[in-house]
Each structure stands twice: as structure tokens, then as C-alpha cells.
Specification:
heterodimer; A: alpha+beta; Alpha-Beta Plaits; three-stranded mixed sheet; 9 strands; about 35% helix; globular; disordered C terminus; B: mainly alpha; Formate dehydrogenase/DMSO reductase fold
Chain lengths: ~290, ~400
């Protein structure tokens, strides 16, 4: 085989470009230990079902005040008009209120899915949506294991709506509107580490009141929003089949093969091309 | 041929002005305006344009049935995910002809590359209709918003780069049409680089389209979800693309009969048989892979459910049966059977891609998505417009017919 200078140059370029891309993949890994995410602990045994959180959430994010009634056993969902929702579940332990909103995963699938970094895990902990970057592909919705992001289908300038843990308030040193408004102290804001310690303490001190599990401690690689419940979590609307490892982990293997393919395949193809070239001189297609 | 003479005279004095005049004269439609295809296609396209205007004025929800549970419907599942699989013929054929030097297939490379290029152009275009905020589409390409951890980021870049690669592969035909000798010589010198780059890109984004669904682990029916989706997508794109080549080639041979030289007419059945053999091989690999994944996933109990029968229907009826048909038709040299197998294979690919992206997606949701008639009309608009452009190019550029006489190396 004789590689001429041009072909050699091409190969070097491809290999070089790939190495550059490859290193940026490595750099994208978050330094998990260095950052302490903030989150919210929701304790269903303290929730009164007053829906003050729903109302202040709507007010804080300029959304219509929720008017529909809260009925036992009727499950309402978050929507593009309502970021946070309280439901009354009828369980083996009686009626249990549970609040639902974005879980603010430690390694969010939505942010890993986003090709423009519009969905973004801030260093403070909240996962936020940045409209200037979003192109509205809705891949975040496909990827989110909790079905959180909602899309405005009936708008010419649609937004993705989801809880942002009141990121602006957190930056200003305040706590999320819902946590501030909660009269029953069901919502506690703090760092994830503190909240998990607090949740453990409550379970230890009142073992009869709680299921011995903190939902969010492990699911989907850990979430910023943590739950304590008096009833088993599958009875209060949580999908207990979700995996404990993070969701971006699922496509990591594929993404890591990309640089290798980019390095290995072109030289292989070039090699085959050179090898088959001599078979028939008359059909040399490169005009060389 | 008249066209060739025209191109030849052009070749003698190809200054800018005359090329412009030539292009303007070529823009006019050739042939009958009221052909059967036009009578169906033009009203659909006009209706589609109206629907697209409504979509941009009142939002995606105004003409689609998409919900918060199923954010991707027919436009992604069929237009993009299925369409790109069908466009896979271009990378397979360029590999066979330019890299492996299988000269037998050289006469169909150009039309396949053209088909692939237009498919990407239009399906990427269809993607724009599905984007809620299309004015930000440039963000993953230029600026500081690179989501490098996203599979979709990879797919978006690959779509763009592969379209450029395919345009370069096709560009000698444009140069021959315009009669620009120097440009043709330069452009055909780029072919090999574009081919190698294009094959690499295709391998990655054909599998990447499958990898898009890896994070939706809990939403896709377990019979269709596995960590091997990317490999399945890649392997199936080989026979999906080649079946499209057989299908499109069979139609082109009838519709554009007078463009194809006597020699290429005679070669057609040999080409189809060769492609049938490759399809059968690729389908065997695919079927075997599906079987292995099925056995390892231990989903036996799911087979005895409605979606389980649907899975068997796809795997046996539209993978195993067309594979055997391809094998049989190759042995018996039965061209009709090859075409039948190609159509069945394509239906199987449509089924498979829709099962993963639409039908099996959120299969357990209380209300299931089905496309609205308007989504279907817009999809047809995209397909018909693509066919119109395809016909426009075929009627003008040397795609099916031989290159003009002044081309020395004839490829």
C-alpha cells in the first residue's frame, strides 16, 4: 500500500479532530464530590393538604391559580400551567397527601438529553430551563423518567414548564416559595446531605409513622427532592420500578464508542480502498 | 440526446452569465402538468402548506395529537427515524462501489446518493416543523450552547455533516449538468474523502438514532427496549436502505425508462439479485441478534399479550418472511419476488421504528397517541415534495442516464 501525502494528511486531521472531541467528553463529567446540591425534603405526615404551595408556586411563576378541587383518589398531574401539584392518595395507611414537581436529579436525564444545554443542572442544585437556548425538540420529555417537563403545545412561542426550585429566589438568598409558604412545616429546604440526615432522624424517632425509605435518596442516581411517606411509595404515585443508577448512564456506553469509531473506521476504510485499488487499474476513480 | 448537446455547448463557454441563464431556463417544469402523480400530489402539498402555516401561528398542538406523555409522534417516528433508515442505502452502496470497488453497482450509485441526500434534506426539514422553537436550531451548531453529553447533539451534527458529504458525492452530476469541466474535476477528486467520511458518519448516526431511546428505558415496551437498540438500528439500516434502493430503482426504471441506457437496463436484474443476497445476509444477522436479545431478556411471559403478538407479527411476518423471500428469489432469480420482499422489508422497518418510538412508547399510558389526519397530510407533503424535487433533478442532471461525452473517467 502506498499512502500519498494527501491521504496521510486527511487521516491525521480526522484523528486529531476526534481526539479533541474525545477529551471534551471526558471533561464534561461533573465533579460530584466537590459540589453540595441543595434540595427540599417533603414529609407527607406533616402535609395538611392546604395547597398553599400550589398557590404561591402559581403566583411566583405567573401561572393561573389552580381552581380545581382536591378530591381523595383523584390524581391531578402537573401541566404546562401548573408546576406543582398536591394529590390525596387513598392508601393502606389511609389518606396521604403527596406533592409532585420536578425531582431535580443529581444527574438529570433531561440535561444529558438536551443538545443545547437549555436544561441545565446548576451548581446550587436546581435543574433549570433556559429559553434562549432551547429549540423545543422535547427530547428532555422523552428522557425524563419522572415525566416532569411539560410543553406548551398551543403556543407559537412555546416554553418548557417545570419546577425550577425557585432558582432566582435561591440565588437571592431566599428559599423556594412553596417551602416558605408551607404552614405545616412539611417542606424543608437545605443541602441534600442535611436533609437526608434529618429524614433518617425522623424515621428513627418515629418508626411507626414512616415507611423506612427516603424516596429520592437513591432513585435515578439520587434526586434533590426527597420524600418521606407514611404509606409505601408505590401507593402514593411513585414508579418504584425506576432504576437506582442514573439515567444518563444508559447512553454513556454509546457516546464513549463514538470517538473510537471516528478514529478506527476511516483508516480501515482507507486501507480497504487502497487494497482494492490495484485489482483493476482501469477503474481508478480518484483521477490520481 | 438533446440535453447532452446543450450541456456540451455550455461546456465550451461557461462564463457566469450563461450558467445563470441556463439555470433559469431549467427551472421551468418539463413534461405534462396534469400527470397522475401531480394530480394527487399538488392538492396534498397545498393543503400541507396551509397546515404548516397554522402550525406556526397557533403551535404544534393545533394540528397534532401530541401530548405531554408522548412528545414525539409521527413526524419524528416516521419522517425522521424511519426516513433516515431508508436513506441508509447511500452509505452502503458508496461503501460497496468506492471502497470495495464492486463495479456492478456503479450505475445506481448516483441515484441512490441523490435519494439519500434529498431524504436527509427533507427529513431534517420535517424536523424543523416539529421543533417548538425552531429559531434556536442553530444553537447546537454555532455558539456556546453545546450539549456534548446528548445523543441528539451527535445526531444533529452528523445530519449536517452527512448532508454536506452526500452533496459532495453528488456534486459531479451537478457540474456535468452545468457543463463546468474544471469544477467537475475538482469535485470528483473530493469524492473518495466524502465517501469515507460519510460512511463513518452514517455508522454513528444510524446507531445514534437508536441510542436516542436508551434513556427512555421505563417508557418503551420491554420487548422492544434493550441496550442493543443502537446496533439493531445500524444493522437494520443496511437492509432498510438497500430495500429502498430496490423499490425506488424498480419504479425509476418504469417512470424514467427513456433515460436509462440499454446496457444499464440489461444490468438491472443482476443488480437486484446482488442486492437481494446482501439484504438476506443482513436480515439474517439482524434476526439472529433480535433472537439473542429476546432470549437473554427473559421476556417470555410478555409474548402471550396483545403487544407480544404484535412483536411476533413484526419479527416473523416482516423480518423472517421477507428474509426467506429474498433468499428464495435470489436462488430462483425471480425479480417479482425480490420486489415483494423489498416492500415487505420496508413495511417491517416502518413497523419496527414506530413500535419503538410511537406504538411501544408509553404503551401503558391510559390514553394512547395516534396521529391526527393533519400530521399525516404534512408527512405526505414532505414525501411528495421530495419526489417532485427528485423528478426535477432526474429530468435534468445525468443521474440515471450516462454522463455527457466530455467526461473522461465516466464515474
Amino acid at each position: 500500500m502506498n499512502f500519498d501525502r494527501r491521504n496521510f494528511f486527511k487521516t491525521v486531521c480526522v484523528a486529531g479532530a476526534t481526539l479533541a472531541v474525545g477529551s471534551s467528553f471526558g471533561a464534561a463529567k461533573p465533579e460530584e464530590n466537590a459540589i453540595e446540591f441543595q434540595g427540599v425534603l417533603y414529609d407527607s405526615t406533616r402535609c395538611l393538604g392546604c395547597r398553599a404551595c400550589e398557590r404561591v408556586c402559581a403566583k411566583a411563576h405567573k401561572q393561573p391559580e389552580p381552581k380545581d378541587e382536591l378530591k381523595a383518589g383523584v390524581i391531578r398531574k402537573t401541566s404546562e400551567k401548573q408546576r406543582s401539584v398536591i394529590n390525596n392518595y387513598v392508601t393502606s395507611k389511609g389518606e396521604v397527601f403527596v406533592k409532585k414537581q420536578c425531582m431535580h436529579c443529581n444527574e438529570p436525564a433531561c440535561a444529558a438529553a438536551c443538545l443545547t444545554q437549555a436544561m441545565y443542572k446548576t451548581k446550587e442544585g436546581p435543574v433549570i430551563w433556559r429559553g434562549k437556548k432551547c429549540m423545543g425538540c422535547r427530547y428532555c420529555m422523552v428522557s425524563c423518567p419522572f415525566d416532569v417537563p411539560k410543553f406548551e403545545y398551543h403556543s407559537a412561542n412555546p416554553k418548557i414548564e417545570k419546577c425550577d426550585m425557585c432558582y432566582d429566589r435561591i440565588k437571592a438568598g431566599k428559599i423556594p416559595a412553596c417551602a416558605e409558604a408551607c404552614p405545616g412545616d412539611a417542606l424543608s429546604f437545605g443541602t441534600r446531605r442535611e436533609l437526608i440526615a434529618e429524614a433518617r432522624k425522623r424515621i428513627f424517632e418515629n418508626p411507626k409513622d414512616y415507611v423506612d425509605q427516603i424516596w429520592g435518596e437513591q432513585v435515578a442516581g439520587g434526586t434533590g427532592w426527597l420524600y418521606l411517606s407514611s404509606a409505601p411509595f408505590n401507593e402514593v404515585g411513585f414508579n418504584t420500578r425506576l432504576q437506582n443508577s442514573s439515567y444518563p448512564e444508559l447512553s454513556k456506553g454509546f457516546l464513549y464508542t463514538v470517538p473510537s469509531v471516528f478514529v478506527l473506521l476511516p483508516p480501515l476504510l482507507l486501507g480497504i480502498h487502497e487494497a482494492t485499488k490495484n485489482r483493476n487499474h482501469s477503474n481508478d476513480d480518484e483521477n490520481e | 440526446m438533446k440535453m447532452n448537446k446543450q450541456a456540451q455547448t455550455m461546456a465550451k463557454d461557461n462564463d457566469g452569465g450563461s450558467i445563470l441563464k441556463f439555470i433559469l431556463s431549467e427551472l421551468k417544469p418539463k413534461g405534462r402538468l396534469l400527470s397522475p402523480f401531480n394530480i394527487i400530489a399538488i392538492p396534498v402539498i397545498l393543503l400541507g402548506i396551509v397546515l404548516v402555516v397554522i402550525r406556526f401561528m397557533y403551535g404544534i398542538g393545533s394540528i397534532t395529537n401530541l401530548t405531554q406523555d408522548t412528545p414525539w409522534g409521527l413526524w419524528i417516528g416516521f419522517d425522521v427515524v424511519t426516513g433516515v433508515a431508508f436513506a441508509g442505502g447511500a452509505y452502503v452502496l458508496t461503501f460497496m462501489v468506492y471502497v470495495l470497488k464492486m463495479e456492478k453497482y456503479r450505475s445506481i450509485v448516483r441515484v441512490t446518493v441523490l435519494n439519500g441526500f434529498l431524504a436527509y434534506l427533507f427529513y431534517a426539514g420535517a424536523l424543523l416543523l416539529d421543533l417548538g422553537r425552531p429559531w434556536n436550531v442553530i444553537n447546537p451548531i454555532i455558539g456556546n450552547s453545546f450539549g456534548t453529553s446528548s445523543v441528539l447533539f451527535l445526531v444533529a451534527w452528523h445530519f449536517l455533516l452527512y448532508m454536506i458529504a452526500e452533496l459532495i458525492e453528488f456534486s459531479p452530476a451537478i457540474a456535468e449538468w452545468l457543463g463546468t469541466r474544471r469544477a467537475r474535476k475538482i469535485l470528483s477528486g473530493l469524492t473518495m474523502g466524502a465517501v469515507i467520511f460519510g460512511i463513518t458518519l452514517s455508522t454513528l448516526h444510524q446507531s445514534g438514532l437508536g441510542a436516542l431511546f436508551l434513556m427512555a428505558k421505563d417508557k418503551i415496551h420491554p420487548l422492544w427496549y434493550s441496550e442493543f437498540i443502537p446496533i439493531m438500528f445500524l444493522v437494520s439500516s443496511v437492509f432498510a436502505g438497500l430495500s429502498m434502493v430496490i423499490f425506488e430503482g424498480s419504479i425509476s426504471h418504469k417512470v424514467f425508462f427513456n433515460q436509462i441506457s440499454e446496457k444499464n437496463h440489461r444490468a438491472q436484474s443482476g443488480i437486484l439479485q446482488g442486492l437481494a443476497k446482501i439484504c438476506a445476509g443482513a436480515m439474517f444477522a439482524y434476526f439472529f441478534l433480535q433472537l439473542l436479545v429476546f432470549i437473554h431478556s427473559k421476556n417470555w411471559d410478555l409474548i402471550n399479550t396483545p403487544l407480544g403478538y404484535w412483536f411476533l407479527f413484526e419479527m416473523i411476518g416482516f423480518v423472517l418472511v421477507p428474509m426467506l423471500l429474498y433468499l428464495y428469489s435470489y436462488r430462483t432469480r425471480n425479480i417479482f419476488m425480490i420486489r415483494l420482499a423489498a416492500i415487505m422489508t420496508m413495511l417491517g422497518i416502518i413497523l419496527n421504528r414506530l413500535n419503538i418510538s410511537v406504538i411501544g412508547f408509553k404503551w401503558d399510558a391510559p390514553v394512547h397517541y395516534y396521529p391526527s389526519w393533519m400530521e399525516i397530510v404534512v408527512t405526505l407533503t414532505v414525501i411528495f415534495t421530495e419526489i417532485l424535487i427528485f423528478r426535477w433533478v432526474i429530468n435534468r442532471m445525468p443521474v440515471l442516464r450516462d454522463s455527457p461525452a466530455w467526461v473522461e473517467d465516466k464515474h
